[in-house]
Amino acid sequence: MPEAISTRTLLEAAWPQATHGLGLLGAVAAGVVLLTLSAKVQVPFWPVPMTLQTLAVLLLGMAYGPGLGLATVMVYLLLGAVGLPVFAGTPERGIGLVYMAGPTAGFLAGFALAAVMAGCLARWGWDKSILQCAVAMLAGHVLIVLAGVAWLAVRMGPGRAIEVGLVPFLLPALAKSAIGAVCMPLLWRALGAR
Protein backbone atom coordinates (compact mmCIF):
# COMPACT_ATOMS: atom_id res chain seq x y z
CA MET A 1 0.00 0.00 0.00
CA PRO A 2 1.36 3.46 -0.85
CA GLU A 3 2.60 5.66 1.92
CA ALA A 4 0.10 8.36 2.88
CA ILE A 5 1.24 11.61 1.29
CA SER A 6 -1.61 13.79 2.56
CA THR A 7 -1.76 16.23 -0.34
CA ARG A 8 -4.34 18.99 -0.36
CA THR A 9 -7.70 18.23 -1.88
CA LEU A 10 -9.08 20.25 -4.75
CA LEU A 11 -11.49 22.00 -2.39
CA GLU A 12 -8.71 22.91 0.06
CA ALA A 13 -6.62 24.32 -2.79
CA ALA A 14 -9.47 26.23 -4.43
CA TRP A 15 -11.32 27.43 -1.33
CA PRO A 16 -9.27 27.18 1.88
CA GLN A 17 -12.13 28.67 3.94
CA ALA A 18 -14.20 25.56 3.17
CA THR A 19 -12.36 23.57 5.83
CA HIS A 20 -13.91 25.40 8.79
CA GLY A 21 -16.90 27.45 9.96
CA LEU A 22 -19.43 28.73 7.47
CA GLY A 23 -17.24 27.66 4.57
CA LEU A 24 -17.47 24.07 5.77
CA LEU A 25 -21.27 24.29 6.00
CA GLY A 26 -21.38 25.85 2.54
CA ALA A 27 -19.25 23.05 1.09
CA VAL A 28 -21.50 20.37 2.62
CA ALA A 29 -24.63 22.18 1.39
CA ALA A 30 -23.19 22.51 -2.13
CA GLY A 31 -22.26 18.82 -2.10
CA VAL A 32 -25.76 17.79 -1.01
CA VAL A 33 -27.30 19.92 -3.76
CA LEU A 34 -24.94 18.32 -6.31
CA LEU A 35 -25.84 14.81 -5.10
CA THR A 36 -29.56 15.60 -5.25
CA LEU A 37 -29.36 17.07 -8.75
CA SER A 38 -27.22 14.17 -9.96
CA ALA A 39 -29.87 11.73 -8.68
CA LYS A 40 -32.62 13.52 -10.58
CA VAL A 41 -30.82 13.78 -13.93
CA GLN A 42 -31.45 10.71 -16.06
CA VAL A 43 -29.32 10.13 -19.12
CA PRO A 44 -30.76 7.73 -21.72
CA PHE A 45 -28.52 4.66 -21.72
CA TRP A 46 -28.92 1.02 -22.61
CA PRO A 47 -30.18 -1.16 -20.96
CA VAL A 48 -31.33 1.20 -18.16
CA PRO A 49 -31.36 5.00 -17.85
CA MET A 50 -28.28 6.28 -16.04
CA THR A 51 -28.16 8.88 -13.30
CA LEU A 52 -24.99 10.81 -12.57
CA GLN A 53 -25.12 10.04 -8.86
CA THR A 54 -22.18 7.64 -8.57
CA LEU A 55 -20.04 10.06 -10.57
CA ALA A 56 -21.03 12.88 -8.22
CA VAL A 57 -20.26 10.76 -5.13
CA LEU A 58 -16.78 9.91 -6.42
CA LEU A 59 -15.99 13.44 -7.59
CA LEU A 60 -17.09 14.84 -4.22
CA GLY A 61 -15.01 12.26 -2.37
CA MET A 62 -11.94 13.19 -4.39
CA ALA A 63 -12.53 16.95 -4.29
CA TYR A 64 -13.45 17.05 -0.58
CA GLY A 65 -11.23 14.33 0.89
CA PRO A 66 -12.32 11.33 2.96
CA GLY A 67 -13.68 13.16 6.02
CA LEU A 68 -15.66 15.93 4.37
CA GLY A 69 -16.70 13.63 1.52
CA LEU A 70 -18.15 11.14 4.01
CA ALA A 71 -19.82 13.90 6.03
CA THR A 72 -21.46 15.27 2.88
CA VAL A 73 -22.77 11.86 1.82
CA MET A 74 -24.03 11.19 5.37
CA VAL A 75 -25.93 14.52 5.47
CA TYR A 76 -27.44 13.64 2.07
CA LEU A 77 -28.50 10.19 3.35
CA LEU A 78 -29.90 11.74 6.55
CA LEU A 79 -32.00 14.18 4.54
CA GLY A 80 -33.33 11.26 2.52
CA ALA A 81 -34.02 9.27 5.70
CA VAL A 82 -36.19 12.04 7.14
CA GLY A 83 -38.28 12.07 3.99
CA LEU A 84 -36.89 14.73 1.68
CA PRO A 85 -37.09 13.55 -1.96
CA VAL A 86 -33.34 13.71 -2.62
CA PHE A 87 -32.87 10.22 -4.11
CA ALA A 88 -33.41 8.98 -7.65
CA GLY A 89 -37.02 7.95 -8.11
CA THR A 90 -38.32 9.89 -5.13
CA PRO A 91 -41.04 10.73 -4.31
CA GLU A 92 -42.58 8.49 -7.01
CA ARG A 93 -41.16 5.25 -5.51
CA GLY A 94 -41.51 6.29 -1.88
CA ILE A 95 -39.47 8.41 0.51
CA GLY A 96 -37.67 8.19 3.81
CA LEU A 97 -36.59 5.02 5.52
CA VAL A 98 -39.04 2.90 3.53
CA TYR A 99 -37.29 3.90 0.32
CA MET A 100 -33.84 3.52 1.88
CA ALA A 101 -34.58 -0.04 3.03
CA GLY A 102 -35.68 -1.01 -0.46
CA PRO A 103 -33.61 -2.34 -3.37
CA THR A 104 -31.25 0.65 -3.42
CA ALA A 105 -30.14 0.34 0.22
CA GLY A 106 -26.86 -1.36 -0.59
CA PHE A 107 -26.00 1.17 -3.27
CA LEU A 108 -26.70 4.03 -0.86
CA ALA A 109 -24.41 2.45 1.75
CA GLY A 110 -21.82 2.00 -0.98
CA PHE A 111 -21.86 5.76 -1.56
CA ALA A 112 -20.34 6.35 1.87
CA LEU A 113 -17.64 3.70 1.36
CA ALA A 114 -16.78 4.98 -2.10
CA ALA A 115 -16.58 8.63 -0.99
CA VAL A 116 -14.07 7.70 1.72
CA MET A 117 -11.99 5.56 -0.63
CA ALA A 118 -11.96 8.23 -3.35
CA GLY A 119 -11.00 10.85 -0.77
CA CYS A 120 -8.11 8.73 0.51
CA LEU A 121 -6.83 8.17 -3.02
CA ALA A 122 -7.06 11.92 -3.67
CA ARG A 123 -4.94 12.52 -0.55
CA TRP A 124 -2.31 10.31 -2.23
CA GLY A 125 -2.50 12.49 -5.35
CA TRP A 126 -4.49 10.09 -7.54
CA ASP A 127 -6.85 12.88 -8.61
CA LYS A 128 -4.14 14.63 -10.63
CA SER A 129 -3.33 11.82 -13.09
CA ILE A 130 -5.86 10.60 -15.65
CA LEU A 131 -4.69 6.99 -15.32
CA GLN A 132 -4.69 6.92 -11.51
CA CYS A 133 -7.98 8.81 -11.41
CA ALA A 134 -9.51 6.25 -13.79
CA VAL A 135 -8.40 3.43 -11.47
CA ALA A 136 -9.85 5.32 -8.47
CA MET A 137 -13.15 5.94 -10.26
CA LEU A 138 -13.43 2.30 -11.31
CA ALA A 139 -12.61 1.13 -7.78
CA GLY A 140 -15.27 3.45 -6.38
CA HIS A 141 -17.86 2.12 -8.78
CA VAL A 142 -16.88 -1.44 -7.85
CA LEU A 143 -17.44 -0.64 -4.15
CA ILE A 144 -20.85 0.88 -4.82
CA VAL A 145 -21.99 -1.96 -7.06
CA LEU A 146 -20.66 -4.68 -4.73
CA ALA A 147 -22.54 -3.16 -1.80
CA GLY A 148 -25.68 -2.88 -3.93
CA VAL A 149 -25.46 -6.43 -5.27
CA ALA A 150 -24.77 -7.83 -1.78
CA TRP A 151 -27.96 -6.21 -0.48
CA LEU A 152 -29.96 -7.39 -3.49
CA ALA A 153 -28.59 -10.94 -3.06
CA VAL A 154 -30.08 -11.05 0.44
CA ARG A 155 -33.44 -9.96 -0.95
CA MET A 156 -33.63 -11.93 -4.20
CA GLY A 157 -30.72 -14.37 -4.40
CA PRO A 158 -27.28 -13.98 -5.99
CA GLY A 159 -28.22 -14.81 -9.58
CA ARG A 160 -31.05 -12.30 -9.80
CA ALA A 161 -28.98 -9.70 -7.89
CA ILE A 162 -26.21 -9.91 -10.48
CA GLU A 163 -28.76 -9.76 -13.29
CA VAL A 164 -30.47 -6.58 -12.05
CA GLY A 165 -27.80 -4.97 -9.86
CA LEU A 166 -24.58 -5.53 -11.79
CA VAL A 167 -25.04 -6.26 -15.49
CA PRO A 168 -27.12 -3.14 -16.37
CA PHE A 169 -24.59 -0.88 -14.62
CA LEU A 170 -21.34 -2.11 -16.17
CA LEU A 171 -21.34 0.20 -19.20
CA PRO A 172 -22.61 3.24 -17.26
CA ALA A 173 -19.91 2.70 -14.62
CA LEU A 174 -17.23 2.60 -17.30
CA ALA A 175 -18.60 5.74 -18.95
CA LYS A 176 -18.82 7.66 -15.67
CA SER A 177 -15.36 6.49 -14.63
CA ALA A 178 -13.93 7.83 -17.89
CA ILE A 179 -15.70 11.17 -17.38
CA GLY A 180 -14.42 11.44 -13.81
CA ALA A 181 -10.90 10.44 -14.83
CA VAL A 182 -10.77 13.38 -17.21
CA CYS A 183 -12.64 15.90 -15.02
CA MET A 184 -10.49 15.83 -11.88
CA PRO A 185 -7.11 16.36 -13.58
CA LEU A 186 -8.67 19.09 -15.78
CA LEU A 187 -10.03 20.85 -12.70
CA TRP A 188 -6.55 20.75 -11.13
CA ARG A 189 -5.02 22.17 -14.33
CA ALA A 190 -7.65 24.91 -14.46
CA LEU A 191 -6.93 25.77 -10.82
CA GLY A 192 -3.18 25.87 -11.50
CA ALA A 193 -3.72 28.14 -14.51
CA ARG A 194 -5.77 30.51 -12.37
Explain how this protein is built.
The structure is a single chain. The protein has a single domain (10-193), classed as Arp2/3 complex 21 kDa subunit ARPC3. The relative contact order is 0.14. With 194 residues, the protein is an all-alpha fold. The protein is built from nine helices and two strands; from the N terminus they run H-H-E-E-H-H-H-H-H-H-H.
The CATH architecture assignment turns out to be Orthogonal Bundle
Number of domains: 1
Count of DSSP strands: 2
Helical amount among residues, as a percent range? over 70%
Describe the global form: globular
Through-space gap between termini: 33 Å
Mean pLDDT comes to 92
Which ranges are low-confidence, i.e. pLDDT below 50, for 5 or more consecutive residues? none
Assembly state of the chains shown: single chain
Radius of gyration: 16 Å
Short précis:
The chain has a single domain (10-193), classed as Arp2/3 complex 21 kDa subunit ARPC3, CATH 1.10.1760.20.
What are the salient characteristics of this protein?
2 strands; Arp2/3 complex 21 kDa subunit ARPC3; globular
Task: Compile the SSE list and pairings.
Blueprint: H1 10-14, H2 21-40, E1 42-43, E2 50-51, H3 53-64, H4 66-81, H5 96-100, H6 105-123, H7 130-156, H8 158-165, H9 170-193
Antiparallel strand pairs: 1-2
Helix pairs in contact: 2-3, 2-4, 3-4, 3-6, 3-7, 3-9, 4-6, 6-7, 7-8, 7-9
